[in-house]
């Protein structure tokens, strides 16, 4: 079993920054892939960024150059540093881990005001 707990969401003005954290527990190890997805109202959940167990990162085109994903394997934590936030970044952000199956956190709300 794997548990994921997100934190760090909130309300920020356009151009501001936030850092999301996802603390994992259970049977998850350094070689498992982890990432962040988001879902805006009325839209499908979409990949924001992911980092493989080998440290390879992947980003949605809409966030390249503004968001950075990183992981601290000792703490079993993955981070998402979000800079130059835009109103269209608003949504519920979910932590995801691929450990055999797919595991999700409860989500943390990010709201960017214009």
Textual characterization of the structure:
The protein is an all-beta fold and 114 residues long. 0% of the residues lie in helices and 58% in strands. The protein has no helices and 11 strands. The chain has strands spanning 2-7, 10-13, 18-26, 33-39, 46-51, 57-59, 67-72, 77-82, 91-99, 101-104, 108-113. Strands 2, 4, 5, 6, 9, 10 and 11 form a 7-stranded mixed β-sheet that branches. A 4-stranded antiparallel β-sheet has the order 1-3-8-7, with no helix packed on it. A hairpin with a 6-residue loop joins β4 and β5 (46-51). The model has no long low-confidence stretch (mean pLDDT 95).
How do the helices and strands line up, and which of them pair or pack?
Blueprint: E1 2-7, E2 10-13, E3 18-26, E4 33-39, E5 46-51, E6 57-59, E7 67-72, E8 77-82, E9 91-99, E10 101-104, E11 108-113
Parallel strand pairs: 2-11
Antiparallel strand pairs: 1-3, 3-8, 4-5, 4-9, 5-6, 7-8, 9-10, 9-11
């Amino acid at each position: 079993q794997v548990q994921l707990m997100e934190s760090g969401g909130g309300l920020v003005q356009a151009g501001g920054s936030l850092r999301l954290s996802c603390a994992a527990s259970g049977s998850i190890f350094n070689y498992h892939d982890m990432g962040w997805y988001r879902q805006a109202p009325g839209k499908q959940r979409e990949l924001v960024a992911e980092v493989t167990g080998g440290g390879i990162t992947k980003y949605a085109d809409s966030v390249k150059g503004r968001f950075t994903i990183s992981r601290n394997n000792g703490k079993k934590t993955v981070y998402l540093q979000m800079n130059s936030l835009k109103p269209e970044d608003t949504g519920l952000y979910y932590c995801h881990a691929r450990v055999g199956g797919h595991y999700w956190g409860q989500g943390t709300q990010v709201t960017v005001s214009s």
